[in-house]
Amino acid sequence: MTQMKKYQLGEFEEIVMLTVGVLYGEAYGVSIKKEIESRLKRGVSVGALQTALKRLEDKGYLKSREGETTEERAGRPKKYFTITAYGKKAMEHSRNTREELWNSIPKIALDLKIVGSGQ
Question: What is the CATH number of the domain that holds 58?
Answer without folding.
Answer: 1.10.10.10
